[in-house]
């Protein structure tokens, strides 16, 4: 008569050890796949935003929305594009940053970070207080004259979508605030300043130092080694974190400035958390 034989304790321990080993191998790979899936979903959302921005420009003779005195002079995309996204506000949120920080709630904590959304400012017609994790290039806006808007020269603004090399001009991107206008200087004759607050990199991922530190609004590791950007030719692609400094943010922006390889930047010049990222 044949007797059934069960597993011994040693055999069970060996099986458990093998399963634990496989889990240890597979979990990091599954985590990377999950992050990649979120990045792809984010790019799909930005493509929808490309359609929204293109429709707005086509309806306004190729012009971007005007920088008006609406409370946020350089954040007016929120109002101009609201008729297009009002019924589908979920496209405001990147899948990798769709929730608020647990400590959020006060006005001092309205900004987001690499894994959390921000909250639109309050006051007047902006009181809808939407949550979002994308922001616009504040050098897009249409405006007349040779003056400045909040210290930024109007002639540097793109104003219309019909420009040369549009594939390197950022329109909309992963962000921790509603927008930003990175630049090295504020006057035509001023020298390039790599330490200027509107261009400096963050000292850690998701750092917030205030509204004026505008490259920090975009320079965060939301998608592993980079971020997603919608460009003025309405294409979307992943951009390396250090590559952000090579994009054509405004008409006078030097794509070979001090924070680029062409401008002499060395890996050791970057904050420690960014040193291992690819140089551009």
Task: Provide a short characterization of the protein structure.
By secondary structure, the chain is of the alpha+beta class.
Note down, in words, how this protein is organized.
The strands form three sheets. The chain has a five-stranded mixed β-sheet with strand order 7-3-6-8-9, with helices on one face. A two-stranded antiparallel ribbon has the order 1-2. It is built from three helices and nine strands, in the order αααβββββββββ. The relative contact order is 0.13. It has helices at about 10-60, 75-80, 80-85; strands spanning about 120, 130, 135, 150, 150-155, 170-175, 180, 225-230, 235-240. The longest helix is centred in the N-terminal third of the chain and has 51 residues, at about 10-60. The protein has one domain (about 10-275). β8 and β9 form a beta hairpin. It is of the alpha+beta class and about 280 residues long.
| Helix fraction bin | 10-25%
As for the number of domains, it is 1
Nearest-angstrom radius of gyration?
23 Å
The N- to C-terminal Cα distance equals: 75 Å
Descriptors:
280 residues, 3 helices, alpha+beta, 5-stranded mixed β-sheet
Topology:
Layout: H1 9-59, H2 77-80, H3 82-85, E1 118-119, E2 131-132, E3 134-137, E4 148-149, E5 152-153, E6 170-174, E7 179-180, E8 226-231, E9 236-240
Parallel strand pairs: 3-7
Antiparallel strand pairs: 1-2, 3-6, 4-5, 6-8, 8-9
């Amino acid at each position: 008569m044949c007797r059934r034989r069960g597993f011994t304790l040693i055999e069970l321990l060996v099986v458990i050890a093998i399963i634990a080993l496989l889990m240890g191998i597979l979990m990091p790979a599954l985590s990377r796949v999950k992050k990649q899936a979120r990045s792809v979903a984010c790019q799909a959302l930005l493509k929808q935003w490309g359609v929204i921005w293109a429709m707005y420009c086509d309806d306004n003779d190729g012009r971007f929305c005007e920088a008006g005195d609406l409370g946020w002079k350089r954040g007016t995309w929120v109002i101009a594009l609201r008729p297009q996204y009002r019924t589908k506000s979920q496209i405001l949120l990147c899948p990798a940053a769709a929730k608020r920080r647990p400590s959020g709630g006060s006005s001092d904590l309205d900004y987001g970070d690499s894994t959390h959304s921000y909250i639109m400012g309050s006051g007047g017609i902006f009181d809808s207080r939407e949550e979002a994790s994308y922001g616009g290039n504040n050098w897009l806006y249409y405006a007349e004259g040779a003056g400045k808007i909040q210290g930024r020269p109007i002639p540097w603004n793109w104003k219309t979508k019909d420009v040369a090399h549009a594939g390197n001009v950022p329109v909309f991107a992963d962000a921790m605030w509603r927008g930003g206008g990175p630049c090295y200087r504020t006057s035509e004759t001023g020298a390039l300043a790599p330490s200027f607050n509107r261009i400096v990199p963050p000292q850690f991922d998701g750092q917030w130092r205030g509204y004026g530190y505008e490259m920090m609004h975009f320079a965060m590791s939301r998608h592993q080694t980079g971020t997603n950007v919608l460009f003025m030719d309405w294409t979307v692609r992943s951009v390396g974190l250090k590559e952000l400094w090579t994009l054509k943010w405004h008409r006078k922006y030097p794509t070979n400035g001090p924070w680029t390889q062409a401008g002499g930047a060395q890996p050791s010049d970057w904050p420690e958390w960014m040193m291992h990222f690819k140089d551009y």
